[in-house]
Amino acid sequence: xxxxxxxxxxxxxxRKVTGKKxxxxxxxxxxxxxxxxxxxxxxxxxxxxxxxxxxxxEKKIKSYTKSNYVLATNSGTSALHICLLVSGIKKxxxxxxxxxxxxxxxxxxxxxxxxxxxxxxxxKTLGINFEKLxxxxxNTAVKKGKYFYNKKTKRRIKxxxxxxxxxHSGNLKDLIKIAKKFKLTIIEDASEALGSFYKKKHxxxxxSVGALSFNGNKIxxxxxxxAILLKKRADYIKAKKxxxxxxxxxxxxxxxxxxxxxxxxxxxxxxxxxxxxxNIEKIISYKYKLLxxxxxxxxxxxxxxxxxxxxxxxxxxxxxxxxxxxxxxxxRDKILKKANSQKIMLRPAWKLMSTLSHLNKxxxxxxxxxxxxxxxxxxxxSSIYGQ
Length: 387
Ligand SMILES: Cc1ncc(COP(=O)(O)O)c(C=O)c1O
Hints:
Elements: H1 3-18, H2 32-44, H3 52-65, E1 69-73, H4 76-86, E2 94-98, H5 104-111, E3 115-119, H6 130-140, E4 141-144, E5 147-150, E6 157-160, H7 172-181, E7 185-189, E8 197-198, E9 201-202, E10 209-213, E11 226-230, H8 233-242, E12 247-248, E13 255-256, H9 267-277, H10 280-297, E14 304-306, E15 320-324, H11 326-329, H12 332-341, E16 347-348, H13 368-376, E17 377-380
Parallel strand pairs: 2-3, 2-6, 6-7, 7-10
Antiparallel strand pairs: 1-11, 4-5, 8-9, 10-11, 12-13, 14-15, 15-17, 16-17
Bound molecules: pyridoxal-5'-phosphate (PLP).
């Protein structure tokens, strides 16, 4: 097929699924309970840092993810920042971060004075390629005392920060193996992965800390918001203080001890979250229906395929993804331009973090697969309306 014909076919396949003239990438869905809970929060006048909804929301997340402790925050980025701080990430530590990623993971590393060290991903899961990372660390890292150091930079390689991209999980058995072998702290960026499990264990609970996001484009939303999932009580106490400007509990005295951050989720955000959370399983079941529709629509189309994870893993399929073959990769931007001009919102993957102007000076391994994926990924309209 000629390129023009292929482009037309792709748009036709997408329209067949969305059945809409205008299709957004990801719209939030509100049923009636959101309005009721928001109104109840407004009527209570407790819309800010005090009120019952934050605690209820945290309990819901705790019970669903089976995390030991949960703290709701005002964004996924602030949750991630606190995850790094309670993990003891400090100046000149190196954190291993997939380059195919959203900037928050690298940015919070820099907030801590630490160094992002970019690693490659695999095509099967879009997550970290652990086999490749193992070989790389064998050559790049040297053990001195208890820990591993970068031979070239002499800095400690401290943390491994997997991002569960579009809600999918990599092979987390290997994540734990490699973290143990090289004495790495696991900090999970599960911002996109609420509702995703690996062997029945929720993503974000494999290390001692993990972060979720409830931004407006995520699987459920609080407008803007996030959560920290924690394993240890000591980390929970530390994080709870840090997100509340390091304020010490007292009935009426205002005591602040040490540097802190204003990162708490507000009661009004949490009221929305409480209503949204009740629909998480319904939303994910619609995501699976959408996946089947896309698969059917692109069946027999040899130039691109719909991304699908191994059946044994429970992804939330937050964003549906089309993977272009070599031929179509060359016209990816033409496809994006045409679709967007016709109000079908398609998006490329992020530019690789290792190529951004504020990050391109940091260490990196060979990134061949990420480079290829960056050119071949197109995210499709993934809203559940009409399902
Ligand atoms: C992978 C990833 N990490 C971190 C974030 C940051 O979350 P937020 O936008 O809630 O700060 C996002 C989402 O936007 C994300 O997709």
